[in-house]
Amino acid sequence: MPVKKRLLIAGGGYAEIPLILAAKRLGFHVITSGNRADDLGHRHADEIHLEDFSNKNAMLQLARSLEIDAICASCNDFSALTAAYIAEQMQLPGHDPYETAVLIHHKDRYREFAQENQIPTPRAAGFESVQQALDQLDLFLFPVMIKPVDLTGGKGITKLERIDDARTVLEQAFQISRAKRIVIEEFVEGSRHGFSSFLRDGRVVFCFQDNEHYFQNPYLVSAASTPAIVPATTAATLCQQAEHIASLLNLKTGIFHIQYILHQGEPVIIEICRRAPGDLYIQFVQHATGINYPEFIIRAATGLDCGGINQKEPTGYFTRHCIMPSRNGLIDDVIYAPEIREQIIDQMLWWERGQQIDQFLVQKQGIVFLQFESLQEMLTRTEVLPELIRVEMK
């Protein structure tokens, strides 16, 4: 019996479960990492080695000791950076050079690159100290967004309306940033969307768009629905921009995900990344299109052939919804309204009765996938899903 190739996934949370399962189906011996022993993804791995995936040197030491054949990032920017670093140091396939990964995943580096190359992006600048930022604040049109350069999921983001409030907001953003750098960008009005594409030899061979929905936390995507309510030309525009970026940076085959704001009918790119989005987004893509997105992400990360992925549009009206409480306290129950039950096509739950919630704006208790009969039903019901799937608290 042939020896299985060893794949290290730089993480092991619930969001990595589709990647872990896809890798096992492809015949890999899957090793998970991360620094939380109770992460749900570890239950599906062949082997577990706990290590902080944001520590690229410790992860490199682990990867060498395990004699891995390939590495795949988890649904986290720190993991994407570490995976690129390990792949470069160990000459593994499927990843961009480390410096390219830093440019893509650090907000200040990306915004500078975007502005230099006429990529549609908010007017922005990066800063390395509070005083430096304060000295240049009057160069921006208010309101502005203050963001740590290296965090995702809305962490540390503040919309600054008045220059008088700047010092406290800037100090908070610098404090939460691991790199101790921030960006200031001018606020762009419009609807928010995701555009997930797959590059093969520098060309977009598959793309998928969604509508982003926000509930209690204005900077954390709580739900995503598809098809996207955007002009028919948007996909072509974003494909062109993705291929432009891929050409400038000589990007490898694999996922290329964009977050954008539709402003006056045109997409303004806010973030890009080269790893799977979180909260089972790749499973959402699979439900909506039938494309085995997790498998192709693994194929790309491990240097396998990716010739089988081609464009497919959503086959209906779908939503991915994160179950989240509306306040801190103890979970008593999760109640489904009768009229929403028949729309649920899949779910992953991990909430427990009596569980303590102390950060309700970011803590999730499960993911639910729903299918609707019409576009209007999808949009209407998605907006009230926190009421239709309600977390009752003690």
TrEMBL record:
SUPFAM superfamilies: Glutathione synthetase ATP-binding domain-like, PreATP-grasp domain. Gene3D superfamilies: 3.40.50.20, ATP-grasp fold, A domain, ATP-grasp fold, B domain. InterPro entries: ATP-dep_AA_Ligase, ATP-grasp, ATP_grasp_subdomain_1, CPAse_ATP-bd, PreATP-grasp_dom_sf. It comes from the Bacteria. GO terms for molecular function: ATP binding; ligase activity; metal ion binding. Keywords: ATP-binding, Ligase, Nucleotide-binding. Signal peptide: none annotated. Residues 111-302 form the ATP-grasp domain. This is ATP-grasp domain-containing protein. It comes from Gimesia benthica.
